[in-house]
Amino acid sequence: MEVFKKGSNVFKILSEAISEGIVIVNTTQTIVATNMAANLLFGYDEEELLGQHLDILIPKKYHSGHHKHVKGFMKDSGKRQMGHGRDLYGRRKDGSQFPVEAGLNPFSVYENDYVMALVIDISIRKKAEQELKHWANIFNESLNEIFIFDAQTLFFINVNKGALSNIGYNIEELRRMTPVDIKPDYSRKEFMEKIEPLIKGSLNKLKFNTLHRRKDGSTYPVEVHLQKSSTGDIDTLVAIILDITEQEQYTQKLENTVTERTRQLEEALNKEKELGELKTKFLSLVSHEFKTPLSGILTSATLAGKYVKEEQQDKREKHLKTIQGKVKYLNNIINDFLSIERMESGKVNYKFTNFPLSKVVNEVIYDANMLLKEGQHIEYPENIDAIFIDFDEKILELILTNLVNNAIKYSSENSMIYLTAKEEKKLLILTISDEGIGIPEDEQKYIFNRYFRAENALLNQGTGIGLNIVKTHLENLGGTIIFTSKPNVGTTFKVTLPLSNDE
Asked: How many CB atoms lie within 10 A of CB 141?
């Protein structure tokens, strides 16, 4: 310390001309000299630090490490940056800590060894470094993909983790690539034209959707946000990429839902319109179909009442038979409408019993005989007495009644109606054939539609619901119905039923 006092004027002149803080210690780490910059840096008065151990300027938690560092330096002295690769902190008189950078310079005076430390407060630089590190972390850890590339050559300069993870390339591979290499929808010329407004400055930001292609060849939809940036003399473009796969899938799903809902609404509206038309047609049809037989019943009843004499019995019976036939016809219509109501409300309960086929056939033919026209005849099926079927008896009667009555209705006088029945494997096959007007070929595909009546049958009574009911019941019970028909030749319906109810 005396040495520095002797040459204090020289030391003072030299040290005060330096902006860095100067702290000189001897081999025992005792402070022997400081300059004004060091005193101000650590918050001490002039000469207040002289004679103090260097630990006074170092936070306590760093004492142990600092002692080892200084001993190592003394052993292998030479100019060096203290704490290279480590954070160094100083302690002010008031106890506050601050980051420092220290350069150590060993020297000898009068055979005594000393170390001069040049100390700089790097608080501002540290704060800037921390902020830079923070922004670097934000860049690197962003879940969005970030690409930085040269505005002229287009080569990638830097890429964040999110981009590397999704695109599949490593940073070395990408630095030999350009955005065109990962955008299958763009050629280099097209991409340059796309970014030209950014490069020329006519746009501050560019946003567009495209596809990105990964290293494995797969593609995914992206939304690109592109901005220009400058680093020194180099113009760069920063691309922030949003993977919009889920967004597009959701949009597609939404569009599909809207399309489906629109289709359903259109179907509902069409069905409502169709139901409205059917309702009008139904009311008109019911009015006509009930009015005609009721008128016949009234006429026959009136005429029958006039034939009171015994010798007029045959005339009375003729009108009574007409009344019976008309009532039977009305009863069949009512049964058809009730069947429709039960089927639409889901209230159809089938009752299976085992019965001889002849029982139902006899009832159907007996009732049908009252409807026969002059000279018409029903040929009874052969060999059916031995056929037994496990089925709903009432439904089978309804099916045969509809088909036989239609055969009578649409056939002329002096014609035949043929019934056949046969067992084949575990099925019963029934056919009902007539020699009637037949069904026009272009209308045959509609024959099972409810309320449909062929053009050549409009003059005959009928509701157009019988065949629809027959087909629905058969489908419900595991049966089928098909037909062949030729206009003015006749029609044959073929019904197939299971002989037993296995379920």
From this structure: 10
Fill in the DSSP letter of residue 182: G
Same domain, 156 and 33: no
The single-letter code of the amino acid at 72 is G
Class of residue 142 by CB neighbours under 10 A (exposed 0-12, middle 13-18, buried 19+):
middle
CA 292 to centroid of chain Cα atoms: 58
Q: Which two tokens stand for residue 62?
A: 């760093």
If you ran DSSP here, which 8-state letter would residue 204 be given? S
**Coil, strand or helix at 447:** coil
Query: Backbone phi, then psi, for 399, in 5-degree steps?
Result: -60, -50
CATH of the domain at 354: 3.30.565.10
Residue 30 carries which DSSP code? B
Residue 27 lies in a domain: yes
Residue/partner pairs of 34-38 with CB below 8 Å, 24 or more apart: 38/119
Of 180, 210, 243, the residue at which a domain comes to its end is 243
Q: Range of 208's domain?
A: 142-243
Q: Residue 326 has which token pair?
A: 């008309």
Rounded Cα distance, 209 and 248, in Å? 11
What's the pLDDT tens digit per position in 355-386? 999 999 999 999 898 889 899 999 999 889 88
435 is written with which tokens? 């020699």
Predicted confidence (pLDDT) per residue in 271-288, tens digit: 778 767 666 666 665 665
Residues of the chain with pLDDT under 50: 6-7, 83-85
